[in-house]
Amino acid sequence: MSGDKNDIIIDVKGLRTAFGDNVIHDRLDLQVRRGEVIGIVGGSGTGKSVLLRTILGLKKPDAGKIKVFGIDFDTLTPDERRLQERRWGVLFQEGALFSALTVAENIQVPYREHLQMNNQLMNELAGVKIAMVGLRADAAGLYPSELSGGMKKRAGLARALAQDPEILFLDEPTAGLDPIGAAAFDELINDLTSTLGLTVFMVTHDLDSLYATCDRIAVLADRRVRLIGTMDDMLASDHPWIRSYFHGPRARAAAPKVK
Asked: For residue 29, which phi and psi values (nearest 5 degrees)?
């Protein structure tokens, strides 16, 4: 369900990012509403993941302002920033699991870093998160090398949810999954969003995921957000890239069938 249109949880204004002389974003504006699932799409080199990393503070913007939870993070002390960052969770494309840790131990990393908990409580909480993402209980003791691609995604998601975040950032969450696994992951995101009241910021190229999960879609083109709106808005656009993407051969396969 879409969030209140007046309740902005991520506010990006006039963003400019560059790597040397290569300008990725210029005067980019984006507002994300609390409680919505927003999909970020665009062609190769348009800076989808760069935008995500810049919002997370992993890349410093060259110009512009970013507010999350109504807060300009540039004004915070390191301790204040770490406290606010506990309010979001991130699933990077490859899951970013620590190979030397079990699934349970990966989920417990935020607990060990930020909280003082005994082992029993950490094990219990890890078990809850493992069940929440649809993994078997015995997955807790497995190492990443023992997991399938889909299981790695779910284990990474469990860690992203460890501290009960308000915002969930997903970077190409269905990349590398077969169609059945990708559809199951889309369904999981829908269930978690509804149950937990999450705001989801999802970078994706997967048209099926856009149809299945997103309230709105933001298209990156020409170094900024060229269009933001519903799937109907995307289908009605005459922008060349948007039209090619949403009306191409793969788009027809993803579109709901008309009876």
From this structure: -120, 140
Q: pLDDT tens digits for 135-153? A: 999 999 999 999 998 999 9
**Could you report the per-residue pLDDT of 166-207, keeping only the tens digit for each?**
999 999 999 999 999 999 999 999 999 999 999 999 999 999
Long-range contacts, stretch 90-93, CB < 8 angstroms, 24+ apart = 90/56, 90/160, 90/168, 90/169, 90/171, 91/153, 91/156, 91/157, 91/160, 91/168, 91/169, 91/170, 91/171, 91/173, 92/156, 92/171, 93/49, 93/171, 93/172, 93/173, 93/175
Instruction: Annotate 109-126 with b (16+ C-beta within 10 A) or e (fewer).
Output: ebbeeeeeeeeeebbebb
